[in-house]
Amino acid sequence: MEWKSVEIVADGAVKIPKRWLHLYYYEALNILFRFENALRLFVYVVLKNNLGKDWDTAALGDGITIRTETRKRIAQAREHGYLGYEVTSPMLYLNSGELTQILSSDAYWKHFAPYFRATKAVVLTKLQEIGTVRNSLAHFRPIKQDDIDLIKQNSRHVLLEIEQILVQLTAITDVVPTNSPANWYKELKAIGSDTLRTGLFSSVNQDWVRLELEYQIPVLQKSVYGPAYISYRLGNLRTPQLLARYDSLRDRCIYVSEAPFFARVQDDGNLQATKDLSIVFSREAVETGLADISAAIKDIALITEQETELIRQDNLARGELVEVKSASASLRDGSNDSKYWATSLESLSTSSTEIEAVEYWGQRWHYSTDFISSVAHYPWMPSTVSSEEWPF
First CA to last CA across the chain, in angstroms? Predict the structure, then answer.
């Protein structure tokens, strides 16, 4: 048998062998992949927001819960861990049928109903129709080209409000005004130190709050190798330890993420950079859990201050929240005979495979529109699923 592969031709165009499946099969796969993962995100957010730390005790029926069933599936996947990527989020082990069962159940529909512009019966019918096409494709049965129109239309109807909640939840960039009368703002904004600063942002609809912890990365050691290369020893905030230690944050938040690193090499070769960690809560969770959240942030500020001083004195030491990592910068050619420093700070980032907590979503990103059909990197996944397509 001869398995022919695609060819990349001029201008990056792709030539597909004629013997491959019809193109509409791939279009169906793309739509269903994005639909199911958007549904996963939505179901998790609603369950976590309403059930808190016990979100994964939601029932799948017959005495089975998300927790009990997905633990078995994760264990089974690890038996063949050499295949594909390692993923630890229980949500990635639930299929669309189970997601539909959860959101349409008598016990949980009240939590999901506000996000649909239709009755439960109508929503369930549309989800079941999508599921029928999905199962045909998943089990390698033929599908019709007309099925593409059906899953597109049903996806739009079902996900209309869901896309809005996902956009609101991920694109939290509005700075909370300094004259805000909210008690939670006054309490949390005052917390900080020379090492750790706090920032507070809210979603456009005011339902979600993003607490940003900005860690001032200390340069502990700098080694210059000629005119074009510098290596560094830097302090780093340990995201896995922060999530493990502070269950008062983990249990109340929806998700935690790290911002991409942007560093600047100064004229003297020193590096300026911060590690920005975002913790996203519902506003209600912040208001009701303010005392515990405030206590945790104060403790983080105190410990990072102490441990940063510790590693300044001893580069071989490691604290519970602060550790030492290596990084580098290299001088490269830019446009018009210019030069610029390119920094390599990958060691400071935390992969989704390093943290089993479902609250860790990896690198922070946001889409102001068209989230469901264009997002390139989903929470809990260690790799992108498509190329980025920016609207400019």
Answer: 44
Dihedral of the alpha carbons of 313, 314, 319, 324, in degrees to the nearest 10: 110
Q: Which amino acid is at 150?
A: L
- Cα–Cα dist 258/265, whole Å: 21
| pLDDT mean for each 10 residues of the chain (392 residues) | 87 87 94 95 97 94 91 89 86 94 95 93 95 95 96 93 91 93 94 95 94 96 93 95 96 95 89 95 96 97 96 90 95 88 93 89 78 88 82 48
Q: So what's the pLDDT on residue 325? A: 95
Is residue 386 situated within a structural domain?
Answer: no
- 202-226: per-residue pLDDT in tens? 999 999 999 999 999 999 999 999 9
**DSSP track, 2-20:** -----EE-GGG-EE--TTS
223: tokens are: 């080694």
User: What is the number of alpha carbons within 13 Å of residue 151 lying toward its C-beta?
Assistant: 27
Q: How far is residue 374's CA from residue 367's CA, in Å, rounded to a whole number?
A: 9
- Residue given tokens 């709050």 in the structure block: 209
Beta bridge partners of 237: 322
- Predicted structure pTM score: 0.92
> Could you give the CA distance from residue 94 to residue 73 in angstroms, rounded to a whole number?
9
Q: 325 and 270, same structural domain?
A: yes
The rounded distance, in Å, linking the Cα atoms of 210 and 306 is 25
Residue 285 sits in the same domain as residue 357: yes
The answer to whether residues 126 and 209 belong to one domain is: no
Whether the Cβ atoms of residue 368 and residue 167 lie closer than 8 Å to each other: yes
The C-alpha atoms of residue 317 and residue 305 are separated, in whole angstroms, by: 14
Q: What is the DSSP letter of 105?
A: S
Query: How far is it, in rounded angstroms, from Cα 363 to Cα 351?
Result: 8
Q: Are residues 325 and 240 in the same domain?
A: yes
210: closest CA among 183, 174, 186? 174
Q: Determine the structural domain holding residue 67 and report its residue range.
A: 7-170
71-86 pLDDT, tens digit each: 999 898 888 878 888 8
Kindly tell me the burial class for residue 17, based on how many C-beta atoms sit within 10 Å of its own C-beta (0-12, 13-18, 19 or more). exposed
Q: Does 144 share its domain with 187? A: no
Model pLDDT for residues 103-137, shown as the tens digit of each residue: 999 999 999 999 998 999 999 999 999 999 999 99
